Amino acid sequence: MTEMPKRADGSRATPLLSRHEALGGRMIDFGGWRMPVQYTSILEEHRAVRQRAGIFDLSHMGELFVEGSEAAAALAGALVTDPPSLEVGRAHYSMICAPDGGVIDDLIVYRLARDRFLVVANASNAPVVSDALAERLDGKRAILDDRSLATALVAVQGPAARGILGPLTDVDLSTLRYYAIAEGNVAGIPALVARTGYTGEDGFEVFVDGAAAGELWDILVGAGAPAGMLPVGLGARDTLRLEAGMPLYGNELDRATTPFEAGLGRVVKLAKAGDFVGRDALARAAKAGPRRLLVGLVVRGRGIGRHGYPVWAGDRRTGAVTSGTQSPTLGVPIAMAYVAPGDAAMGTMLEVEVRDTRAVSEVVPLPFYSRAR
Amino acid sequence: MIPSDLHYTKEHEWVRVEGDVATVGITQHAADQLGDIVFVELPEPGKRLEQFATFGVVESVKAVSDLFAPVAGEVLEGNAGLATTPEVVNSDPYGAGWMLRVRLSDPAQVGQLLDPAAYEALTAEG
């Protein structure tokens, strides 16, 4: 029996669906899941995370556990990163690529023990990643345990996150580093606590058994209320990650995109020991140089660039917007776009085609927003 | 509450008629559905609008939506305040969040719009 069965309409619900509905969440279908896009206001929820804290239900994400004496080496052969180089208790950003170098998904890989890893995949890609990993691990002393439908994930993000979560857990958050994970309890519930997120703020992601998700959510919501923590939907999750310059699979990354084009070439460890899927194609792509590059744009004219809007360099179409919105923090329209490499230099003035006009836009460094440290 | 002194379109615009001048905006229902409004694109004064044709665009954080003219006429004025404070469309859609003032070319067109009861029934259907 799974914790997160399919509903009558074919979508899946997380164990927290009734909480989202009780909170007035506006529910949408996202990657096959019934999820809240907002509770009150995307802007309010966005600002809560930047200034105080927000709590997110991310139980739609895929949790793939890989265990065995060859788990590290098998993952090195399956992914573009080098999991054997991870220390126990640490994590890194990774990707799984097709033999032609296209990105199947972007991932976080956590090393839980010498021979045990947790791979977190995007919700809509989790089944594909699970199948690809199973195939790539075949014949190795490594077992894939896809616990996506049994594992709940709740994130607490924002400057107040540590103060909210700290008193509830036996994990020492003061020594838990960014991109680290520890096993412990949160409010007495067995959990994996990771210092990772997708918002550009300090924050934590808490993995628990799906059956305990409701209890965990209620305790965290209660603990966060005095600090002004709000529940945050997918709408603000998108604006937060966009300000932080983080890619979204399906927008900045897809099967037709290499990590190099996305500015994520550093993630690909071509020098690691052993072969891995996509190595030859990625080595060629690295040598040839990217055909297009992901850039940040700030619209200096009037208009908001949206996914798919053309980008022009004079009368030459140089690319297209992948993600764009009005930045709640900066108060100006921001976008990410793929453009020709010659148009990607900082300060280059391009134009985003917005309906029947063109909005002058400047290439700026990513991320658009970095928290004060 | 849906104001009782206005006329409505199925696309969730409202219009207030005073003599041969109409004031146009979007309803609270529309503003709520869009979410936080961050950008409003309106036509210049002098532009001639066709009834039920698009006259502009309203953007929330997540989405872009067309605006439809409830009546035909000539644009007298757009709400310049929306360029800097588009959020008043959410907070006061029937007041400070108005969008256009239009000189009606055919006042009889108002008869083709929904009355408050019909608009309320439309939104109740979801």
What are the defining features of this structure?
heterodimer, A: 373 residues, alpha+beta, Gyrase A, domain 2, Alpha-Beta Plaits, Elongation Factor Tu (Ef-tu), domain 3, 3 domains, six-stranded mixed beta sheet, six-stranded antiparallel beta barrel, 8 helices, globular, B: 126 residues, OB fold (Dihydrolipoamide Acetyltransferase, E2P), six-stranded antiparallel beta sheet, 3 helices, 35% strand
Describe this structure in words.
The complex is a heterodimer of chains A (373) and B (126). In chain A, the strands form four sheets. In chain A, strands 11-12-13-10-4-14 form a six-stranded mixed beta sheet. Chain A has a six-stranded antiparallel β-barrel with strand order 15-18-17-16-19-20. A five-stranded antiparallel beta sheet of chain A has the order 6-7-8-5-9, covered by helices on one side. With 373 residues, chain A is an alpha+beta fold. In chain A, helix 2 (42-51) packs across helix 7 and helix 3 crosses helix 4. Chain A is built from eight helices and 20 strands. Chain B is of the alpha+beta class. Chain B has a single domain (7-124), classed as RNA polymerase II/Efflux pump adaptor protein, barrel-sandwich hybrid domain (OB fold (Dihydrolipoamide Acetyltransferase, E2P), Beta Barrel). Chain B contains three helices and nine strands. Chain B has helices spanning 28-34, 88-91, 116-124, and strands at 7-8, 13-18, 21-26, 37-41, 48-49, 54-60, 64-68, 73-78, 100-104. In chain B, strand 6 and strand 7 (64-68) form a beta hairpin. The radius of gyration of chain B is 13 Å and the shape is globular. Chain A binds chain B through residues 37-38, 41-43, 235, 238-239, 302-304, 306, 325-326, 328, 333, 355, and chain B through 35-36, 38-39, 41, 57, 59-62, 64.
Q: Could you estimate the helical fraction of the residues of chain B in percent?
A: 10-25%
Q: State the distance separating the first and last CA atoms of chain B.
A: 15 Å
Roughly how many Å is the radius of gyration of chain A? 21 Å
Tell me the fraction of residues in β-strands of chain B, as a range. Answer: 25-35%
| Number of domains as seen in the coordinates of chain A | 3
Mean pLDDT of chain B: 95
Question: Helix and strand string of chain B, N-terminal first?
Answer: EEEHEEEEEHEH
What is the alpha-carbon Rg of chain B in Å?
Answer: 13 Å
Distance, first to last CA of chain A: 45 Å
CATH fold group of chain B:
OB fold (Dihydrolipoamide Acetyltransferase, E2P)
Q: Architecture of the largest domain in chain A in CATH?
A: 2-Layer Sandwich
Oligomeric category = heterodimer
CATH class of chain B: Mainly Beta
Low-confidence stretches of chain A: none
Q: List the uncertain runs of chain B.
A: none
Total DSSP E strands of chain A:
20
Residue share in β-strands of chain A: 25-35%
Number of helical elements of chain B: 3
